[in-house]
Amino acid sequence: MNSKLRLMLFLSPLLLFVVLGGFLVGGLFSDPTKLDSALVGKPVPNFELPDLYNPDRSHTQSIVGGKPMLINVWATWCPTCYQEHSFLNQLLAEEDIYIIGLNYKDDSRAAAVNWLQQLGDPYQINLFDQSGLLTLDLGVYGAPETFVVDAQGIIRYRHVGDLNERVWHETVGPIYYSLFEQ
C-alpha cells in the first residue's frame, strides 16, 4: 500500500475527531439564552393583531414606542411561561414597567384569557398571535422570549428563556433602565 494512502487513512479519522470535538466544546460553552437576533437595532416589524380580550379591536406597531417597554412572548401550553409569570406580576407590582404581552399560538383565546384571570395579568396590552405571524417576524423559536424595545420602537435586546429575578437584575433590567437615559 502506498505510504501517502496509509497516512491519509490514519489522519482522516483523527481530523474528524478533532473537528467533532471542537463542535462539542463550542456547544458546551455557549449560552442558549443568547441567540443572535437580526432584529436587534431594528424597528419592531409591522403587524396588525387582535387584542386578546377584545377580538374586535386590533393593534398595530403604533402601540410600540413612545417609551421603553418589554414585549414578552408567552403561551398557556408553555411550562416555563408559567414559572416566569409570577415574576412578571411581582416586577409590575414593584417597578414601573411597561409590558406588552404577545400570546403565542394558543389554540383558544378563552384559555389564554382564563390563564391571565387566574394567574394575574402583568401586561398593559395583550396581543393574540394565534397563527404566529408576528412571532415569526421576530424570529421567535419558542416561548418565553422577551424583547427590550426603546422609545423609538427599536429592539435593543432579546432574551430567550424565562425572565426571572437574576436575569432581570443582571441583564434585562439594566438594559431597560438605560433606555430612559437616552
Uncertain regions: pLDDT < 50 for 5+ in a row?
A: none
Helix share bin: 40-55%
Number of domain modules: 2
Derived from helix and strand composition plus strand pairing, the structural class reads: alpha/beta
Q: How would a textbook summarize the main sheet?
A: 5 strands, mixed
Number of helices: 5
The CATH topology of the largest domain is what? Answer: Glutaredoxin
CATH architecture of the largest domain: 3-Layer(aba) Sandwich
Query: For this structure, what is the CATH homologous superfamily of the largest domain?
Result: Glutaredoxin
* Percent range for β-strand residues: 15-25%
Give the ordered list of helices and strands: HEEEHEHEHEEH
- Per DSSP E runs of 2 or more residues, the count of β-strands stands at 7
N- and C-termini, Cα separation: 71 Å
What radius of gyration results from the CA coordinates? 21 Å
CATH domain class name of the largest domain:
Alpha Beta
How are the strands ordered across the major sheet?
5-4-3-6-7
Shape: elongated
Can you give the mean pLDDT? 89
Topology:
Elements: H1 3-28, E1 48-50, E2 58-60, E3 69-74, H2 79-94, E4 99-104, H3 109-119, E5 125-129, H4 133-138, E6 145-149, E7 155-160, H5 165-178
Parallel strand pairs: 3-4, 4-5
Antiparallel strand pairs: 1-2, 3-6, 6-7
Organism: Aliidiomarina taiwanensis
Membrane topology: Single-pass membrane protein
Keywords: Cytochrome c-type biogenesis, Disulfide bond, Redox-active center
Architecture overview:
The protein is built from five helices and seven strands. The N and C termini lie far apart (71 Å). The chain is α/β, with parallel strands linked by helices. The protein has helices at residues 3-28, 79-94, 109-119, 133-138, 165-178, and strands at 48-50, 58-60, 69-74, 99-104, 125-129, 145-149, 155-160. The protein is elongated, with a radius of gyration of 21 Å. The longest helix has 26 residues, at 3-28. The strands form two sheets. It has a five-stranded mixed beta sheet. Strand 6 (145-149) and strand 7 (155-160) form a beta hairpin. Helices cover 40% and strands 19% of the residues. The protein has two domains: 1-30; 48-181, 3-Layer(aba) Sandwich (Glutaredoxin). InterPro entries: Periplasmic_diS_OxRdtase_DsbE, Redoxin, Thioredoxin-like_sf, Thioredoxin_CS, Thioredoxin_domain, Thioredoxin_ResA/DsbE_sf. One of its GO terms (molecular function) is disulfide oxidoreductase activity. Residues 38-177 form the Thioredoxin domain.
